[in-house]
Structure formats: C-alpha cells, structure tokens
Amino acid sequence: MKEIDLKDKKILYYLDLDARLSFSQIGKKVGLPKSVVSYRVSNLKEKQIITNFYTLINSYKLGYELYRIHISYQYASPQIKREIIDYFVNYKNSCTVHEVEGRFDLAVTIYVKDISEFHTFWIQTLSKYRDYFKDLIFSIYFIESTFRYEFLFDKKIQGERKQYDLFKDKKIVSIDILDRQILEALTTNARLPTSDIARKLGSTAVTVNTRIKKLIKIGVIEGFRTSIDFTKIGYRWYKVDMVLRDYNKANQIISYLKTNPNFVGIDRGVGYVDLEVEFYLKSVDQIYSIMNDLANKFPDSIRNYTYISVIKTHKYSLLPPSD
Q1: How far apart are CA 230 and CA 73, in angstroms?
Q2: 3.40.50.2300, 3.20.20.120, 1.10.10.10, 1.10.150.120: which CATH number matches 1-47?
Q3: What does pTM read for this prediction?
Q4: How far apart (Å, rounded) are the C-alpha atoms in residues 233 and 10?
C-alpha cells in the first residue's frame, strides 16, 4: 500500500471532479503552488495511483442502452476463464469487463443499439460457453449516479455530494466525424490540450474548443474524470445488490446512504435487484457494518443482499462503437 498525505488526497478529489483543471486552479483549491501540484501529480502517476484521465460520455445520448451481464462459472479451467474474458474484451460493443469475487465471477456491460445484433452475439456466446456458465443474470441500466469521493477528506464536505447522473431519455443527439474524433482523443486522455487535439486532427484549437463546449451542452460529455487505483491506497470497490421487502423505502435508504462518505454510486435498472449501491471500503467487514446499520435504521425493509468486488478490470471503454 502506498502512503499519501491529505494534500495528495485533495488533489485526487479535485482531479476527479474535473480532470481538465489546470495545476494552478487545483493549487488554489488545495493551498499549494502550481509547481508543487505538478510534482505531486507526477508522483501519483509514477506510483500508479493515477492511471489515466478519461472523459465521461453519456452513451444514452448517442442512442445506446447498457445491458449488464453477471456470470458465475462452473467446470471452467483457468484457460477457459481466460478465453471467456478475452472473448468479451474483444467484442466491439463491450463497455466494461471486470473479473470479480463474491456472488459472481465475471461482470460485463454491453452497449446495445440494435437488439437483434445483440441477440446474434448472445446466441454465439451460449453456443461456445453455455456449459461453463452456472448462473446468468441480465438487467438493463437506466440511471447511473456517481457521488463525490468524500472519504478522501478528514471531514465532511459541504454541498451536494452527487457528481453525475447518466440516464436514458428520448433526447438522442447526432454527432459528426469531427465530434467522434474529438471524443476518441479525450477518452484516452481527458487532459489533452485542445491545441494537441487540433494538430492531430488537422483542425484549429478554436474549432476543437467550440466542439467540446457543444458536446458538453448537448449532454454527450458529462465530465472529465480521473482513473484512480484505490487499491494502492488501501481501498477496494464494492457493489452491494439489495432486494427490498418494502420498495417504498428505496429513496429513504438512498438518502441515508448519502451520509456515508464511502458511498460513491448507485445504479438503477430493470431485471435484477431493487438497489445496486457502490462503495470504496478498506475491508469487506465494512459491508456487514453498513448493512447491519441499514437493518437497524430500516427494520424489515431489506429482504436480502449480495455483493461483488472487482479483482481485475480487463476492459473499460466509455465510448460506444461507431456505426
């Protein structure tokens, strides 16, 4: 585990709020000179605590739905598991591929614009690997909410904790080739200067900057974030899936969870459980403490729960495939 101080944690916090903030802007927020912020960020990258800067793209605006598949294995050798992972990674419409532990072994999300295309892919998948799938769970995501990393601070942060909402609506937008190229450049490096993007694409910085502002305005770009390997500083990502006895308590449970600084996300979908909530925690014991606390706070409201935690991420692609 890497040791970092409060200043580093604050830098991580503000870089995740907006990865395109200048080091001068971050310095004003954390009380450090620009040169010191630059040095600290370089150090965080060298320690592989910061692994990337990425652009959060609302795929729903581009006409895609997001299907989630959870799989638990049976009769699968290490070689077969590796083959199945590579199969999903190489599928052009896969968004994320996570090796997990807990209730399931593999968690995959797929971009779906054409259900018949997905059906063809899934028939092919089952014909190859059905015997190795013990359990399969499908659901469709409709709302994905993320919350600020308050746990990085020593005290509660004032203001709204919610950071982003990605949700499906009917306002699908169109983008052209230049828009797509700009998104491709920013997806792999959200801090890439507009002048560098313009030079790469044979455009001008003014045009690129205008296009980025347009993509933000129409909701295709939701924000610019930082990929942080929290395992390097003692945290792991956990998702708790809850089935409720009293669904009318769902919003009250969510409101209560917002007071927990380690609560970082919630997914709402159709086809699986009632609540899917995400945390960064130091140990699995904290899940039991959180759930016991919820059981005391909301007696007889939660029927049961399971959890998963990411062991390894094999794919994380936030830009859907081009048509």
Answers
A1: 27
A2: 1.10.10.10
A3: 0.90
A4: 14
